[in-house]
Design brief:
Layout lengths: L16 H4 L2 H5 L10 H17 L4 H25 L20 E12 L2 E13 L4 E5 L6 H8 L7 E6 L2 E2 L5 H11 E4 L11 H11 L4 H14 L15 H13 L5 E5 L7 H18 L2 E5 L3 H6 L2 E6 L2 E6 L10
Parallel strand pairs: 3-8, 3-9, 6-7, 7-8
Antiparallel strand pairs: 1-2, 1-4, 4-5, 9-10
Helix pairs in contact: 3-4, 7-8, 7-9, 8-9, 9-10
């Protein structure tokens, strides 16, 4: 990425500078928040601090919080200026330990949107319990609310009403900063398109979720190599997305989703863009990773072959779970 002030290249690690240095002071002045190189971040931080001292009715309050923020963050600040990253940042936990042994409960989940003054109800009240390590497929016609349900379950969007409990904790009521940390460490996503960053190779793309959460690069590199080897890409670590096949790209996306050892993996049409042979290989990989890692998986799909292989099938229609279908080769999933 490039610095928003000087236009020079700004390493990814420096994004966190604004999040950790003078965090309380800068929160009052959101206009200076952004992706900056180390020089611009340093100048902006101290300039904003001085402005807080002398201008605006926030001056006295900002001065007080500056006295608190600077001592708390000075070691991190110096670490960023010297090395581009801080070695003292806490490492977030890999998912919720307690939640791994407890079910995920969805209660009365609703979601609506306002479009041109009209209320559009997409989810109308979903109740669902997902047991630890379960593999679940969700099918249904287009417009049934499958993808919206997946996004809300994964906390990418908040529900209009209802609860989503991982273990005993309702994630809907988490404050935004805590919810973001929870999502990054506890939920993995795989979409129809891989969404890999083209400038980075397979190893770097897989490491990205941990780097964003300030986990040391060496630790993330080790984890990324292990999971890439598990998905059969040990010899593709230095290849960029453009140098990989469609199936290999999706394997990297799957590795990226699993590198933080999430409690829950959500997949939205993960093989929709792949040929049948490659799709079968990805499907087999899902089952193998579930068997070896115990990851709970929820997959939205129109692929009848994949849906029937799942131990549990739910069909959605009009924003509701219409019924649960027992896996059977002779069952008409779309009736």
């Amino acid at each position: 990425m490039t610095c928003e002030i000087c236009g020079r290249e700004a390493p990814t690690g420096h994004v966190a500078l604004h999040q950790n240095v003078g965090v309380i002071v800068l929160r009052f002045h959101s206009k200076v928040e952004g992706r900056l190189c180390r020089d611009c971040a340093s100048r902006t931080f101290w300039r904003t601090t001085l402005v807080n001292l002398f201008f605006g009715w926030w001056g006295v309050i900002s001065f007080f919080f500056t006295l608190v923020a600077i001592p708390m963050n000075v070691s991190q600040y110096l670490g960023y200026l010297r090395n581009g990253q801080s070695s003292s940042l806490p490492t977030p936990p890999l998912g919720l330990g307690a939640a791994r042994s407890k079910p995920i409960r969805v209660e009365g989940l609703k979601k609506h949107f306002i479009h041109m003054g009209k209320k559009l109800e997409v989810l109308r009240g979903i109740d669902l319990t997902i047991t630890p390590g379960e593999m679940l497929s969700i099918i249904g016609p287009s417009g049934a609310g499958k993808s919206t349900f997946l996004h809300v379950l994964g906390t990418l969007d908040l529900p209009s009403a209802g609860r989503i409990c991982f273990g005993d904790e309702d994630v809907v009521r988490m404050p935004p900063h805590r919810l973001s940390t929870f999502r990054g460490g506890s939920i993995g996503f795989v979409f129809q398109f891989h969404h890999l960053l083209p400038e980075f190779n397979a190893l770097e793309n897989t490491m990205m979720p941990g780097l964003i959460q300030n986990i040391p690069r060496e630790e993330m590199a080790k984890r990324a190599r292990e999971i890439l080897a598990a998905v059969g890409l040990a010899d593709r670590l230095t290849h960029r997305p453009g140098e990989l096949s469609g199936g290999e790209q999706q394997r990297v996306a799957l590795a990226r989703a699993l590198v933080m050892n999430p409690v829950l993996l959500l997949a939205d049409e993960p093989t929709g863009n792949l040929d049948s042979q490659t799709s079968d290989a990805i499907h087999n990989l899902f089952f193998e990773l579930n068997r070896t890692r115990g990851t709970t998986m929820v997959v939205v799909t129109h692929n009848a072959v994949l849906a029937r292989r799942m131990p549990r099938i739910l069909r959605m229609r009009d924003g509701l779970i219409e019924r649960e279908i027992k896996p059977n080769a002779e069952t008409d999933l779309w009736a």
